[in-house]
Amino acid sequence: MEPREQPEDIASSARLETFADGVFAIAITLLVLEIRIPEPGENVARAILNQWPSFLAYITSFLTIGTIWADHHRLFTVIRGTTYGFLFVNVLLLMPIAFLPYPTAVVARQWFEGKDQVVPAMLLYGGTMALVAVLFRVVWRYASSRGLMSAEATRSRAYRRRGELIYRLAPLIYGLALLRR
Amino acid sequence: MEPREQPEDIASSARLETFADGVFAIAITLLVLEIRIPEPGENVARAILNQWPSFLAYITSFLTIGTIWADHHRLFTVIRGTTYGFLFVNVLLLMPIAFLPYPTAVVARQWFEGKDQVVPAMLLYGGTMALVAVLFRVVWRYASSRGLMSAEATRSRAYRRRGELIYRLAPLIYGLALLRR
Amino acid sequence: MEPREQPEDIASSARLETFADGVFAIAITLLVLEIRIPEPGENVARAILNQWPSFLAYITSFLTIGTIWADHHRLFTVIRGTTYGFLFVNVLLLMPIAFLPYPTAVVARQWFEGKDQVVPAMLLYGGTMALVAVLFRVVWRYASSRGLMSAEATRSRAYRRRGELIYRLAPLIYGLALLRR
Amino acid sequence: MEPREQPEDIASSARLETFADGVFAIAITLLVLEIRIPEPGENVARAILNQWPSFLAYITSFLTIGTIWADHHRLFTVIRGTTYGFLFVNVLLLMPIAFLPYPTAVVARQWFEGKDQVVPAMLLYGGTMALVAVLFRVVWRYASSRGLMSAEATRSRAYRRRGELIYRLAPLIYGLALLRR
Predict the structure, then answer these.
(1) Degrees (nearest 5) of the Cα angle B138, B143, B147?
(2) Is the CB of D23 less than 8 angstroms away from the CB of C39?
(3) Banded model confidence at residue A171, pLDDT cuts 50, 70, 90
(4) CB D105 within 8 A of CB C47
(5) Alpha carbon separation from D145 to A170, B121, D100 (Å, rounded)
(6) DSSP characters for chain A?
(7) Count of alpha carbons within 13 Å of D2, Cβ hemisphere only?
(8) Per-residue pLDDT tens for B31-75?
(9) CA nearest D104: which of C58, C35, A31?
(10) From CA C111, how far away is CA C181, in angstroms rounded?
(11) Chain D residue with Cα closest to A91
(12) Is the pLDDT of residue D103 over 90?
């Protein structure tokens, strides 16, 4: 995309991290908006228990996006700087991440009440997770091939394996979907 | 969780703070969305007075989350850095904090209009606050046991007592609930 | 509030600014959510023209909150650091700022369609603005009396006058309300 | 606007960037809220396919705002600092950017279902994009004329051409609108 980048085009990644953190922060809190406040006079305990898929969706989405954020954070401890092209690759990665609360909510709603609709819901969720994993790898490759990563990190297998936690989540989800049928 | 962490794995906590601040900023403003704008022609003063539980919920939530934020801020003035595991402990802490506007709104709606439903609402609120307090302590312990805290802060009783303000809020809430019956 | 603060309790104000910026960013964009997307087949031009009070509310709120943000930014160029108590004073200031989109939307809706309801709407708006102005002054006083401000700024009249732009907006609003009757 | 600015009034642009990043982060994620979660029992695949204009709006808005953010980021790598007046010029620029999700959603909804309403929708979208482009140029001019930009950047044609990517998007949009008729 940006093959003509010269060394002096490498800028600090501080602002890329601030922007990404903003997107992560919004995505991670989004599903709290889905939980309905009981009306006055309504039985509060029952209203809350009946909504437990929404609570579960909030917790799942929080832990998933929190994990991806921690991986993104860890990746950027070995990133030396950013180029114009690298900003775009990161925007691409953030797109399915900010979308993740949606499939999480779809799965939660279908899991308990719409049994025959669980599989398409899981496909949407697993597909989004797979896209996050693929784009995470693209960000990694882009950074290491353009010299944006510390030499040590580019060589080290230990560092390389670090971004892979989320890879293992997608197949797990599919496994659960099969069990669920 | 991450017992094999070596010293070189300690990274700056700057980005953890930026992310936490984003989550705090969203959580603290969330309840303004719950206040309904009067329709044209509707009596504005009455529409606003009738909604005073929503206003109270906004103020309570703002002051509570503001206090927790200030405590988080104070804690991090003695944190020297972060590890991968410490990121997760902080994500866990942020989960009930971002959820806090929900029980606050539930209590506010039931307090004045759904009298017999106040106790379950208070249990939800107090339980969330207690979870915040417990996880705050977990963050503190994790940081001091992994050497992420300045030696002085780990020893000092004055510093240790600092995170405890929110501890005292939860029992207060329960006390109020009992009085309210 | 915190009279026993010792010099070593002064921490960097960087995180206070990040948090405030998050609250400002959310508040400033909030009213875009109030603008209704026309249904398919609905006359788009008419649907947009009929909603012009909502557009005006968005613009007004953006410019007002943008101005307050710029003043907050300017104030913090002369702030040397922060204490635990100063964090709370700033949380208090942020409370009416994050609330500001609400009275702005109330005024916009009543201004054109609910003529006899303009005055209470204006009182709500003007009152919120006045509260922002008063708390801005409290933040200023707190900072200068606790030694959180550079000595030059504490003395200088030019610096002191800087926070006063928003002061002049509240009476202007009231003037407009009187003209409007 | 601020012709009497002295050199000592130039402050770091760090906080302006943090605030802008917050606004960008909110705007870029906003349209995920427009996608409806299927009800339990509803056919999930069909519900999602029927909403594809909303998905397209999310993707378009994400890529567009992501591009503008990358341009804003690139511009600020050559900005040396900020003045009070420069803050306002940036607030003006952020106003149509935070608004952009709205026209994007309007176009998406009319493009497939409200065929004769595509042209006014496109005018709204193209007009917003044109306003962003014009204000981007105003920010650039303001910075270079007030000495807020590095001397090299002010001279260089290569740097100057950099902010122009979004310029080319607006006419493209209009071209598409004409084809669509």
Answers:
(1) 150
(2) no
(3) low
(4) no
(5) 52, 59, 28
(6) --TT--GGG-B-SHHHHHHHHHHHHHHHHGGGGGSPPPPTTS-HHHHHHHTHHHHHHHHHHHHHHHHHHHHHHHHHTSB--B-HHHHHHHHHHHHHHHHTHHHHHHHHHHHHH-GGGHHHHHHHHHHHHHHHHHHHHHHHHHHHHTT-B-HHHHH-HHHHHHTTHHHHHHHHHHHHHHHH-
(7) 18
(8) 999 899 998 878 999 999 988 889 989 999 999 999 999 999 988
(9) C35
(10) 10
(11) D66
(12) yes
In sequence order, what DSSP letters do the residues of D142-174 get, joined into one string? HHHHTT-B-HHHHH-HHHHHHTTHHHHHHHHHH
* pLDDT, tens digit (0-9, with 9 covering 90-100), for A142-168: 998 888 887 777 666 555 555 455 556
pLDDT at D83 exceeding the cut of 80: yes
Q: Is the dihedral of CA A132, A138, A142, A143 positive or negative?
A: positive
Please report which helix (H) or strand (E) contains residue D24, including its range.
helix D14-29
- Integer Cα distance of A77 and A153 in angstroms: 10
10-residue block means of pLDDT along chain B (181 residues)? 50 91 96 90 89 90 93 89 93 96 90 76 88 90 88 63 55 62 51
Of A21, A43, A77, the CB nearest to B22: A21
Structure tokens at A178: 């099969």
Distance (Å, whole) CA C128 – CA C122: 10
For residue B112, what are the contacts with CB-CB under 8 A and spacing of at least 6? A40, B52, B53
Instruction: Indicate the SS3 state at residue C11.
Output: strand
Rounded to whole angstroms, the Cα distance separating C89 from C85 reads: 7
Separation in Å, CA of A49 to nearest CA in chain D = 17
Residues B90 and B154 sit within 8 Å (Cβ to Cβ):
no
Structure tokens at B124: 């939800």
List chain B residues with CB under 8 Å of A35.
Answer: 102
Put simply, whether A70 touches B (Cβ < 8 Å) is yes
Kindly indicate the confidence band of residue C149, based on its pLDDT and cuts at 50, 70 and 90: confident
Site of tokens 């780990």: B154
Q: Cβ of B22 under 8 Å from any chain D Cβ?
A: yes
- Which of C102, C104, C112, C119 should we substitute to test contact with B (largest number of B Cβ atoms within 10 Å)? C102
Q: What single-letter amino acid sits at A130?
A: A
Print the SS3 string covering A66-98.
HHHHHHHHHHHCCECCECHHHHHHHHHHHHHHH
Do A26 and D29 lie within an 8 Å CB cutoff?
yes
Q: How far is A4 from chain B (nearest CA, A)?
A: 30
Distance between CA atoms of residues B26 and C27, nearest Å:
10
Residue B61 structure tokens: 């939530």
CB C31 within 8 A of CB C61: yes
Q: In this structure, are residues B64 and B169 in contact, taking their beta carbons and an 8 Å threshold? A: yes
How far is the CA of B107 from the CAs of B65, B121, B125, B168, in angstroms?
16, 5, 7, 19
